[in-house]
Amino acid sequence: MVDVTKWPLFSLMGPQELSSVRRACVFGMSANEAIYITNDDEVYVFGLNCSNCLGTGDSQSTIVPKKLDFLSGRKVVSLSYGSGPHILLATEDGELFAWGHNGYSQLGNGTTNQGVAPMLVSANLLNKKVTVVACGSHHSMALTDSGEVYAWGYNNCGQVGSGSTANQPTPRRVSSCLQSKVAVGIACGQTSSLAVVDNGEVYGWGYNGNGQLGLGNNGNQLTPCRLVGLQGLCVQQIVSGYAHSLALTDEGLLYAWGSNTYGQLGTGNKSNQLSPVQIMTEKERVVEIAACHSTHTSAAKTQSGQVYMWGQCKGQSMMLPHVTHFACTDDVFACFATPSVMWRLLSIGRLCLESVKEELCLLPLQSGRNETYYNKIKSLKKEFDNPETADLKFCVDGKYIYVHKAVLKIRSENHLKRLCQHIIKRGITVDNAFSLLSAAVRYDAEDLEDFCFKFCVNHLTEVTQTTAFWQIDGNLLKDFICRASRSGAFKN
What we know:
This protein folds into 2 domains: 4-347, Regulator of chromosome condensation 1/beta-lactamase-inhibitor protein II (Methylamine Dehydrogenase, Chain H), CATH 2.130.10.30; 353-486, Serine Threonine Protein Phosphatase 5, Tetratricopeptide repeat. The chain starts with 14 loop residues before the first helix and ends in a 6-residue tail after the last helix. Helix 6 (414-425) packs parallel to helix 8 and helix 7 (433-442) runs antiparallel to helix 8 (446-458). It is an alpha+beta fold. Helices cover 19% and strands 32% of the residues. The strands form 7 sheets. Strands 4-3-2-1-25 form a 5-stranded antiparallel β-sheet. Strands 5-6-7-8 form a 4-stranded antiparallel β-sheet, with no helix packed on it.
């Protein structure tokens, strides 16, 4: 479990308030503002309230959390913040809300008036469902469920991708070479923008004075340009720091480029890199990377659960990834980043060894049972994680959890299946990809099947040379070839 009180603002809250927090984000130039979502989807804010960034309707700071009634009951799926700060928030229904600093029209409402309360951003987004948002210093981006990227706000370096340097007052679709692409991820540096598309290609635009676009030069780009330095790789996650960028491939390889003043590229020196360079080559597979546009800090988590940090860490310059005792990348930013903001909207209780143990241990519990039932459950829990009596084990963060098949079957398998799929995705390789695809098909794990299929297509040449590929059932092989053909895998 992530301890949210590692961020000083949340240490002011009592145990009862803290127990209701499901998601949270600390932001602001000095990490003096916070927003959190409760278990019943109420949204609260507190802190300094610079530029009306709390959205309470006034400019007053508050040490006591205030509820944003306008957002009550809306399920938040994505949140990001700028330097003003301004806030973007996307809901499960695909609606986009914005408030806070608006000196460059970064709220997307066509004006430069500060947003004192959440406002629906609808210009050019009618009938569009926003799924992910990202903020630079004073510009904004949104990704829709159809893979379209929209940008608006400050555009002095081309970070909106419109082909000019004029500020963009309302959301505008980023087209050019992204026009026919399906984007699956977006990230913003201070004045730069990145997008990753469904085939793993990465595109960058905006300010490039430190090489943060990874294009091999330091010239600004007014429209998206593909990073040829990542050609042949399938990127799954991109993040941006103040002026540097990180990319993680589907094989767990980590690349870095851009500014390196504080060693934030992890290359062992302070020289900027104009093109992506691979780092952590001697480490195990990387499963998560972290950076934030307001800091010069970088972090990564490996398959066994080790968390590394580098860059500016409490005033020191760490030029190589340094292993920590932390359980998640979020802790790096709480304890060592300047300012100590959150690099993402934090979900309390992210998957880790202890949380998986808790989930598995509580699987048999059902509602509407009497005291005798719960006494039996207590007895079962005593045998949980006992290697002497277990008949099944899971590997999480490099450690084993021992469980019992019969106990797991007491409750619906759906919840356990989701946990297993999450763990399996972290360990996919060229050698086991087709075996995992076969298992996913056999057990009707649709999400895992789609994940494995995309991995196999993106590494088609290597996968087809593995033993697993040629030992597969003939019907599954035919289905795979047909599906891969429809997705364009065999185009010249």
